[in-house]
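Onboarding guide, step 5: your first structure request.
Type a short instruction followed by the sequence, for example:

Predict the 3D structure of this protein.
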Amino acid sequence: MKSESLLKVLTGAGTGSRRRMAEAIKHDRVLVNGQVVEDFRHPVNIETDLVVVDGRKINLNPEPVVTLLLHKPAGVLSTARDERGRRTVIDLLPGEYRRRRLYPVGRLDKDSTGLLLLTNDGELAYQLTHPRFEIEKEYLLHIADDLKSEAKRRLETGIRLEDGMTHPAKVKKVTSRPPFNYSLAIHEGRKRQVRRMLESLGHHVIALKRTRMGNLKLGDLPEGNLRELTARERRALLNQS
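The system replies with structure tokens like these:
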């Protein structure tokens, strides 16, 4: 069988995100056939080689790749587990999916709703979340007052937050999706970024809903429901990066 790079094999095995596996390799926590390997591109034969991460043997023949599109409701955490026992997106999954090692792609805060992907595809998760790929996310906003022209200009040129300047956003007035009155598109993914951007301008976000990630749209999927992405949709997400 043709060999594949160590990093690709690890993310494909559902061991963790690409970033986590890269860190493990860099810090000498990965062994291939008993030897520490520090090269991400080290060739691995999934049929014959033994790969160990942090003392745990990795199954190099994992379950088939699955990516779910979930319409996340409010009050649910976008994480695989919560130490405080709060409800997470994994709790919304049917048993057939809950048994798989799926994890959310990117952030969507507890109070927000909309499009959230869950997958065991490390490569897809990496390409959708790493800043260098600049995958655009679009949100619907409900704020109490209209944006003044100066506030709109600042959103479109960048706002200084406590963790640095934001990249320019795309802002549109919305009239056909009540109670939402604006849409905003960004390609960053900082914690509660959209809410913080609006709050810095004196606008409290009453409701926030993500409707698009790259070329994938939420569509009319009901809140709390999910569906599997097709192979064509997955390829389209990868090819936009």
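Each response can be followed by summary notes, for example: The chain has seven helices and 17 strands.
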